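Example record

One chain of 133 residues, shown exactly as stored in the release files.
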Amino acid sequence: MIHAPAQNIFELLADPSQHPVIDCSGTVRSYKGQQSRLVLGSTFAMEMKLWVPYRIKSRVFEFEENRLIAWGHFGGHRWRYLLQDQPEGTLVTETFDWSTSIFPWAIELCRFPTTHPQKMEATLEQIANLVES
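Predicted structure tokens for this chain:
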């Protein structure tokens, strides 16, 4: 539960330059591009580091203004944020979906299913810190 309007949270998620600020996985380093706001079909690139530095290009696959945004890259797995208005704020659900991954065995081998939940929780806390202050 984040004690802020969905619109404020969505603006943060839809701004790719803010992804390195909100990410608590330690992998998102910087945004490479000029697009200031994502929409359905947008593509964006990030400088990343998971053992070694690399650049990855993602596309927005789901988009409902102030409610839902999801993106993924060539690997097939996706990150999704669902925002639901509640009387006390906004319920935010972050999902890491590797069911469509072209390399699900690699995701499991890297133990992401067991390590991501803690990092996702920290990311949600970071988002709350940014929009609630």
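Notes: The chain has one domain: 6-132.
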